[in-house]
Amino acid sequence: MKSDRERIVITGIGLTSPMGNNLKEFRDGLLNNGTGITHMEIRHMGVVAAGICTFDEYKYQPKKMRKRGTRAGAISIFCANEALLDSKIHFDSVDKNRVGVYLGITEHGNVETENEIHDLYNTHNLDASFWSHHHNPRTVANNAAGEVTLNLSITGPHYTIGAACAAGNLGIIQGVQQLLLNEVDLALAGGISESTQTFGIFAAFKAQGALGHHDDPALATRPLDSNRNGIVVSEGGAVYVLERLSDAKKRNAHIYAEIIGYHSNSDASDFVLPNTQRQIECMKMAIKKAGIEEKEIDIVSMHATGTQQGDIQECIAVKEIFGEFKNVHINATKGFIGHAMGAAGALELAGNIPSFVDGYIHPCKKIENLDPQCNIPGLVNGEKISHDVKIILNNSFGMLGINSTLIIKKYQ
Which residue among 237, 359, 386, 397 is least enclosed by CB atoms within 10 Å? Predict the structure, then answer.
């Protein structure tokens, strides 16, 4: 039996997504067939489908600081401040030496770097004296988390977790581990991405034949559908306030959920193609650490990117573990908002957390022609369903074979 100091809970959520800038807006879109995907013009690429966030970059930072920083930093600052407000913690009285910031990322600084290179060639005739002196702090690996500490005067540890598209889960896992190690008393943890502001990622996915497209942007990504043709690149972020249960109880905090299990492993088999067996092992180890049985899980939130092989391999893994259990329901989020890269896992977890209270499981975006190889028992397709949700398993997998699974439980 774990003590309250060994139990880690979520007491605040701050987010921006292509389908809303708070949990209510995001959840409403997931339950009511919304979409956050639009067409936009990208330099060197023309018109592409993308998921764009419309939050106020200056709500929590002055224009001078935003000018020095990055889009990734702006997303992080917005989400961290929103999470703290949501937690109702008296942050002014918190020992800032005991606060940690752990943010999962895919990449950052690309936006500003591409703009600088564009200006260097097209405006400044390759005169490097015009290169921004802000370049280095914008592109160092700890940038996004570091901007949060500057904004909130946090003097405890901070770093980013570079874990491709598994990063959102891993940012949260890192926060949990640091609390359990007693390195911090409060963790701001999650994942962020600025990917839609850069042409490079669109060009790379197109070169791989993995960039989703359609005349109707809402149909540009169709995970698990036979007619799917790839990924829609999105941006966004979700940051969580994590605390030990003992500390949350002391201040009578509202508790969204308890984090009860997690695991991460590596495929060690290919740069981009997923490995079903390693995904199975990742989920099984997380379930074992949580001390539960497979049949106790109510929602499996799939990574489901909308790529041909990615969807199939994950569906095989999920079906092998959960296929025989009628209580287990399967959903996915990327059909609504696209692939938010480093933010994906954290955002997708957030979208499911309200199930503990509202009693609904949000569906996959309507799958018109289900791929026979993606036909999983329990798949929630197109319409929300009513269910008493107590446990959620959240999958996030990434390039170079990084896998992560996070399990949360309704706090009672």
Answer: 386
Residues 146 and 295 in one domain: no
Mark whether 272 and 238 lie in a shared domain: no
What's the burial of 161, exposed, middle or buried (CB within 10 Å: 0-12/13-18/19+)?
buried
Q: Which pair of tokens denotes residue 260?
A: 């009860």
Q: How many CB atoms lie within 10 A of CB 114?
A: 16
In the chain, DSSP finds a helix count (H) and a strand count (E) of: 14, 15
Decide if pLDDT at 108 tops 80.
no
For 16: left if phi > 0, alpha if psi spans -120 to 50, otherwise beta; the answer is beta
pLDDT, the chain, mean: 96
Same domain, 312 and 194: no
Range of the domain at 144: 8-250
136 pLDDT more than 90: no
- Angle, CA of 380, 385 and 388, to the nearest 5°: 110
CATH number of the domain residue 373 falls in: 3.40.47.10
Sort strands 391-398 and 299-302 into parallel, antiparallel or unpaired.
parallel
Tell me if 3 is assigned to some domain. no
Query: Residue 116 — pLDDT band, cuts 50, 70, 90?
Result: confident
Q: How far is CA 62 from CA 33, 57, 65, in A?
A: 36, 9, 6
Cα(61)–Cα(366) distance, integer angstroms: 39
Same domain for 233 and 156 = yes
Asked whether residue 65 is domain-assigned, the answer is: yes
Q: In DSSP terms, which residues pair with 12 in a beta bridge?
A: 241
At residue 1 the predicted structure's pLDDT band, cuts being 50, 70 and 90, is: confident
Per the structure block, which two tokens stand in for 172?
Answer: 């949260």
CA 34, distance to chain mean position in Å, is 18
Same domain, 302 and 352: yes
**DSSP category for residue 232:** P
Give the Cα-Cα-Cα angle 309, 314, 319 (nearest 5 degrees).
130
| Final residue before a domain boundary, out of 200, 221, 250 | 250
What is the spatial distance between Cα 23 and Cα 352, in angstroms, rounded to a whole number? Answer: 10
Cβ-Cβ contacts under 8 Å for 296 (sequence gap 6 or more): 327, 390, 391
Mean pLDDT of 192-219: 93
Q: What is the pLDDT of residue 127?
A: 85
Strand partners, 47: 41
Would residue 297 count as lying in a domain? yes
Torsions phi, psi of 158, nearest 5? -145, 145
